[in-house]
Amino acid sequence: MNIISLIIQLISGAVGGNVAGAAMKENSLGTLGNSIAGIVGGGLGGTVLQMVLGSAAAGGGSMDLTSILSNVAGGGVGGAILMAIIGIIKNKMAKANGIVALTSTKVTSNSEQLTEQI
Fold it and tell me: What is the pTM for the complete model shown?
């Protein structure tokens, strides 16, 4: 893999992460979060695609149309998938913590009533 392939994968990963964030608003991490997750996912996705398809995915060192498209596809899909996974995990954790936070907020705001009842 050369540096040009890696740059293409990282950029397309950032784009893929933001496209996935726009498509799944409930799992979006915000523009910066989508971009960071997409960049990491793009690098990982491109690397996995290269390992599966061999050096043909990287164009064997050359930058022809096929290698550029495979780098864009691998990076974009990898970025979108990683952003979606992180977004889903974030939402599950927020829901689990949100119930606890809501309960503690209610107890705190009604502390006088709670004290009177005890």
Answer: 0.71
